[in-house]
């Protein structure tokens, strides 16, 4: 990159992943800019729930307290039949808190983005109303072209521009121009949707506990209702025929109203029908429920994270947490590469190594999250008889079964590995990286005072004593020698 000295990342997208990248790069001292086509924290979308693997990262960013202050943590999950009969009443979220030490808040997505933005030290690096339209990738640098003709130059582009990612399309174009057929037509069809989703939120009313999550099962449909301090967030999943990207339909507000009309009289609990939520709705939207994990997460100097490359169904609420995870993994690798490079500016080969490592890590872990989320979607909406049976059997399993499965995934989460996790939120389960660090410390233990004294004795005192003895011996010998010379001289 010619005269430019510092390694610079151009982040495209100022949503969950983009603002997480701004925090992570700020902590790592990596030069960056975040380009967002709209405003930061727009009044769109519904909620975001933060699970322990995301919470630990937010704690490192310094934004966790503000997120937790926004609402009450979710405690219980209740499942209902289509007639409103309660079939399961689980302490799922309490177990998760007990295992990892973190409460599970669910807050408005817009508020979450505001908190993330407010927590940044240097807001001048976040550029709203900066729509990216092209990427020119070359040997020495990468250029990002904005809709107003401005060009930003850097060493790496991080595309966190969501499920309809333009960066992904531009990366494919550049890849296939360089290596024909590198991205196959099949890979481009990775993203598919089996469901559409009616999203909305209302004021929390008297029928909804502000710490409960309700799941109501229907054949080919499910309702999720999450009570919060101010708002109740609700989601209706509708099973459709599978459609693949790029043929995914765009839904209008009229489509949303048509879908809502089908559900007005549907019970969502023992005491409430859907129409009660709909009539007090603050915001509603109908969207596709895409899912898919792309094989290629990078090409050249362009890398993808978040929904652009690992999109999961939102039934558990893991996509945003995973976007933050991916940003953290990339930051750790870049931080190390920059530190190891003599001028603090890794060359293209070093960047490729970083991106290979990143892809290797993310492919395995994101597959687990996507499959886990997909299973929840199918069980909740009784996709087939098999899933219906599962939903009826699960309440008879020990209450902590689901929490334990989820925790196996959570405890293997990454964190920024170059700064500590402040505070002391500990659960009954240990994080895998803490266990690894402890093992490392066991094999290379930090010396205690007695170890230090022993090694001083062994490596310093004993050799010094030996040297002293040797020195005295030589002195005595040499003085005996000079006495003999002196007495000879006197005798003469
Ligand atoms: C109904 C619903 C509920 C959910 N609940 C949860 C939950 O509880 N917990 C959870 O962890 N996840 C949840 N998710 C998933 C979560 O919202 C996403 O996984 C997360 O937002 C992905 O972050 P991202 O940064 O990849 O994309 P986004 O957050 O979508 O951000 C992409 C950004 O890129 C910008 N952009 C796009 N194109 C351009 C361009 N050309 N130039 C510049 N900027 C551009 C967009 O304007 C946008 O701001 C939910 C999703 C849905 C649909």
From TrEMBL:
<dbReference type="InterPro" id="IPR002938">
    <property type="entry name" value="FAD-bd"/>
</dbReference>
<feature type="domain" description="FAD-binding">
    <location>
        <begin position="7"/>
        <end position="373"/>
    </location>
</feature>
<dbReference type="GO" id="GO:0004497">
    <property type="term" value="F:monooxygenase activity"/>
</dbReference>
<comment type="similarity">
    <text>Belongs to the paxM FAD-dependent monooxygenase family.</text>
</comment>
<dbReference type="InterPro" id="IPR036188">
    <property type="entry name" value="FAD/NAD-bd_sf"/>
</dbReference>
<protein>
    <recommendedName>
        <fullName>FAD-binding domain-containing protein</fullName>
    </recommendedName>
</protein>
<dbReference type="Pfam" id="PF01494">
    <property type="entry name" value="FAD_binding_3"/>
</dbReference>
<keyword id="KW-0274">FAD</keyword>
<keyword id="KW-0560">Oxidoreductase</keyword>
<keyword id="KW-0285">Flavoprotein</keyword>
<dbReference type="InterPro" id="IPR050562">
    <property type="entry name" value="FAD_mOase_fung"/>
</dbReference>
<dbReference type="GO" id="GO:0071949">
    <property type="term" value="F:FAD binding"/>
</dbReference>
């Amino acid at each position: 990159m010619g005269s430019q000295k510092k390694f610079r990342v151009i982040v495209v997208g100022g949503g969950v992943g983009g603002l997480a990248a701004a925090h992570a790069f700020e902590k790592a001292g990596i030069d960056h800019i975040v380009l967002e086509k709209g405003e930061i924290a727009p009044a769109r979308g519904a909620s975001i729930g933060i699970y322990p693997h995301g919470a630990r990262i937010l704690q490192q960013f310094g934004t966790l307290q503000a997120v937790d202050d926004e609402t009450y943590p979710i405690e219980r999950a209740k499942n209902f039949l289509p007639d409103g009969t309660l079939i399961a009443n689980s302490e799922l979220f309490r177990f998760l808190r007990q295992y990892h030490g973190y409460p599970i808040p669910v807050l408005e997505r817009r508020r979450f983005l505001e908190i993330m933005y407010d927590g940044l030290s240097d807001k001048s690096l976040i550029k709203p109303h900066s729509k990216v339209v092209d990427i020119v990738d070359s040997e020495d640098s990468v250029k990002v072209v904005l809709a107003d003709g401005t060009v930003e130059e850097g060493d790496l582009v991080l595309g966190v521009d969501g499920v309809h990612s333009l960066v992904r399309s531009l990366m494919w174009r550049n890849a296939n121009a360089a290596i024909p057929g590198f991205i196959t037509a099949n890979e481009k069809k990775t993203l598919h949707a089996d469901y559409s989703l009616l999203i909305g939120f209302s004021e929390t009313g008297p029928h909804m506990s502000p710490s409960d999550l309700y799941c109501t099962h229907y054949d080919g449909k499910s309702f999720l209702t999450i009570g919060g301090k101010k708002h109740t967030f609700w989601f209706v999943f509708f099973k459709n025929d599978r459609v693949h990207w790029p043929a995914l339909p765009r839904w209008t507000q009229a489509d949303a109203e048509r879908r809502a009309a089908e559900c007005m009289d549907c019970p969502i609990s023992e005491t409430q029908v859907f129409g009660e939520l709909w009539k007090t709705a603050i915001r509603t939207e109908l969207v596709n429920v895409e899912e898919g994990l792309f094989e290629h997460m990078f090409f050249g100097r362009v890398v993808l994270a978040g929904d652009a490359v690992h999109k999961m169904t939102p039934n558990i609420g893991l996509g945003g947490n995973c976007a933050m995870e991916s940003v953290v993994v990339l930051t750790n690798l870049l931080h190390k590469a920059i530190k190891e490079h003599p001028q603090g500016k890794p060359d293209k080969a070093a960047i490729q190594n970083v991106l290979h490592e990143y892809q290797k890590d993310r492919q395995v872990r994101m597959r687990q999250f996507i499959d886990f989320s997909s299973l929840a979607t199918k069980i909740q909406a009784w996709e087939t008889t098999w899933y219906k049976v599962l939903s009826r059997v699960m309440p008879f399993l020990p209450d902590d079964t689901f929490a334990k499965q989820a925790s196996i995934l959570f405890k293997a989460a990454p964190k920024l590995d170059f700064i500590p996790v402040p505070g002391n939120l500990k659960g009954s389960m240990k994080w895998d990286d803490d266990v690894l660090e402890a093992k490392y410390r066991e094999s290379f233990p930090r010396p205690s005072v007695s170890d230090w004294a022993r090694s001083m004795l062994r490596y310093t005192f004993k050799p010094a004593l030996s040297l002293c003895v040797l020195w005295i011996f030589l002195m005595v010998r040499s003085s005996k020698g000079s006495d003999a010379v002196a007495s000879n001289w006197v005798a003469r």
